[in-house]
Amino acid sequence: AAMAVAKGWTRLVLPALLVGIWGYVIGTFLGVLVGRSIAEWLGS
Questions:
Q1: By C-alpha distance, which of 38, 32, 40, 7 is closest to 16?
Q2: Which of 9, 37, 39, 44 has the fewest CB atoms nearer than 10 Å to its CB?
Q3: How high is the pLDDT of residue 41?
């Protein structure tokens, strides 16, 4: 989003923010999934 603002691409600011937030959502979900899987595999 910062790059879109810097380059004057005002129409792309909101889509850039949404893509960034979606990346955090997916990353958090996968991180929790992997962490729980490893904990279960180790018997914790």
A1: 7
A2: 44
A3: 96
Q: Is the pTM of this model over 0.85?
A: no
Q: How far apart are CA 2 and CA 26, in angstroms?
A: 21
The Cβ of residue 28 has, within 10 Å, a number of other Cβ atoms equal to 10
Q: What percent of the chain has pLDDT over 70?
A: 98
Q: How far apart are CA 22 and CA 5, in angstroms?
A: 19
Rounded to whole angstroms, the Cα distance separating 6 from 38 reads 42
Count of domains observed in the chain: 1
Alpha-carbon span 38 to 9, nearest angstrom:
43
